[in-house]
Amino acid sequence: MAHTHHTNFEELLEKHHLKKTAPRLKVLSMLHSKKVATSQPDLETVMVDIDRVTLYRILNTFEEKGIIHKVFDLNGTANYAVCSSNCEENHHHDEHLHFNCTVCKNVYCFDDLHLPPIKLPAGFKPEGFTLYANGLCPKCGKVKEKEIN
Ligand SMILES: [Zn+2]
Ligand SMILES: [Zn+2]
Ligand SMILES: [Zn+2]
User: Fold this and answer.
1) What is the model's pLDDT at position 118?
2) Counting ligands in written order, which one lies closest to the CA of residue 90?
3) CB within 5 A of ion ligand 2: which residues?
4) Which residues are registered as beta bridge partners of 36?
5) Mapping DSSP to helix (H, G, I), strand (E, B) and coil, where does residue 107 land?
6) Rounded Cα distance, 58 and 149, in Å
7) pLDDT below 70 — which residues of the chain?
8) How far is residue 24's CA from residue 55's CA, in Å, rounded to a whole number?
9) Angle CA(46)–CA(111)–CA(21) in degrees, nearest 5?
């Protein structure tokens, strides 16, 4: 699975003027293969060959370049999800719904569920919007159903 989009990832790094290093490609394909946003501690456990500082720098660079965006789970931990292609360097457009599961604490990124335009009171200059919904993801909802029956 991870290798399917390999060429695209190289192009993506090239487009953002980033050197195509093995750790960067690895992080990118890992984040892409996941259905949910992923935290740095989670990445650390699967990518034991990349040290923490390198991983931290990769995530920071990707976020700055508009490749990934940060969302928070219910524990307050930062999770990262791949951006849609309309994000730019230092300018994200991730105005879509995120879903926090109260049981497994996974953060789901719904790229297709865009936020309606929101007009703020005069004087407020928003740099971005993040909307969260809380509740049960399909997997945890099924478990709950079984417990009741
Ligand atoms: Zn973005
Ligand atoms: Zn869940
Ligand atoms: Zn998102």
Assistant:
1) 86
2) 1
3) 101, 103-104, 137, 140
4) 108
5) strand
6) 46
7) 1-7
8) 8
9) 40
Place of tokens 């990934």: 68
Rounded distance, CA 47 to CA 34, Å? 14
- Ligand 3 midpoint to CA 69 (Å): 7
DSSP-derived secondary structure letter, 120: P
What span, in angstroms and rounded, lies between the C-alpha atoms of 59 and 53?
10
Give, rounded to a whole angstrom, the gap between the first and last alpha carbons of the chain.
37
Cα of 83 from ligand 3 centre, angstroms:
7
Instruction: Compute the distance from residue 95 Cα to the ligand 1 centre, in Å.
Output: 9
Strands 78-82 and 68-72, bridge-based pairing: antiparallel
CB 27 within 8 A of CB 47: yes
Q: Any idea which ligand is nearest the CA of 35? A: 3
- pLDDT at position 30, please? 93
pLDDT on residue 7: 56
Give the burial string for 41-80 (b: 16+ CB within 10 Å, else e). ebbeeebeebeeeebeebbeebbebbbbbbbbbeeeebbb
According to the model, what pLDDT value does residue 143 have?
85
